[in-house]
Design goal:
The chain is mostly helical. Helices cover 48% and strands 3% of the residues.
């Protein structure tokens, strides 16, 4: 979708430039830019709209042309993290494109529009050629990699990883847990194969206790121990350390029965673990087996499943 330009004496020209950019008509874009220079109609809000809408519409060749042409984009490389990327209005509002009160600048929305658009990999790849880095931060709390994982943009995630994105740069488990929360096994595989910590994070613990069964399946395939009696937990200082937590069976049974966005029931997860070979005889730190914990917590349906598998104690 191409957004209309606000009405003014040069609105038709501007709309033509915007239409050509969004349709990928590079020859017309070039011709109109020559007129733009001659008529001295350039302004930062026009540049901003061109860049964001070109990114949204997946026109990578036009975007490259804009970066080569617009003086606002010709900045030292690489982009600085989230405080300054290139000179574009940050407080953009489509109802006030011609305001002169733009005092704060950022390329944040260009990146977000690229991720939401029709060809995210092509646009992000172009931006990587013009100073974007794999480790770019959208703000102090969120990296571009994290946002791409959140939006399930597998091709963009791979592109960022291939360009040096460090999965473990912030909290080691943060990006991987975002993939697990969405129960996206292919994203989990991609992150683990590119170095996401598994043994040194609580990712498997999170997948178990929040009942993301596809992610549990994939993590087991990638080497998680179905009978591991240790789990990673955060201490008061926020650091992760290994603690005795019982087996995955123990932890699943002890977790809250109702889990928002769980992709399987408690009973289905217990059955799955038993089918996969989970040992029901291992005791936890208090000396209880998973069945004994189920009895203690009155998990009647879980108790029935243990009986189906011949577990008696």
């Amino acid at each position: 979708m191409i957004r209309p330009w606000n009405a003014d004496p040069s609105a038709e020209f501007r709309q033509g430039l915007l239409d050509a950019s969004c349709k990928g008509d590079i020859r017309r874009v070039h011709a109109l830019f020559e007129i733009l220079k001659e008529e001295d109609m350039a302004e930062s809000s026009l540049y901003y709209c061109l860049l964001t809408e070109t990114a949204r519409n997946g026109q990578a060749d036009v975007l490259r042309y804009l970066f080569d042409t617009l003086s606002d984009c010709l900045r030292p490389l690489p982009w600085k993290t989230y405080n300054y990327q290139f000179c574009l209005p940050f407080n953009y509002h489509e109802d006030n494109l011609h305001g002169d009160n733009h005092t704060s600048y950022s390329g944040l929305n260009v990146l977000l529009y690229a991720l939401e658009g029709t060809d995210p990999p092509a646009i992000i790849n172009a931006l990587l050629d013009y100073g974007l880095t794999g480790n770019h931060d959208l703000n102090s709390d969120m990296s571009l990699l994290y946002k791409a994982v959140e939006m399930k943009k597998h091709d963009v995630v791979k592109l960022l990883l291939d360009h040096g994105a460090d999965i473990n740069r912030q909290k080691p488990e943060l990006v991987l847990i975002k993939a697990i929360r969405s129960d996206d096994p292919d994203m989990v595989s991609l992150l683990v194969k590119h170095g996401a910590f598994t043994e040194e994070s609580n990712a498997f613990e999170y997948a178990l206790t929040n009942r993301r069964i596809r992610s549990v399946t994939r993590l087991l395939e990638l080497g998680a121990d179905i009978n591991d009696t240790f789990a990673m937990r955060r201490n008061r200082n926020g650091d992760l350390s290994k603690v005795r937590a019982g087996t995955p069976l123990h932890r699943v049974i002890m977790a809250r029965p109702k889990q928002p966005e769980a992709t399987c029931s408690l009973e289905e997860m217990v059955r799955f673990l038993l089918v996969k070979g989970a040992n029901a005889d291992i005791v936890n730190i208090t000396g209880k087996t998973p069945l004994q914990v189920a009895r203690q917590r009155k998990r009647k349906e879980v108790i029935k499943i243990f009986k189906e598998f011949g577990v008696k104690k």
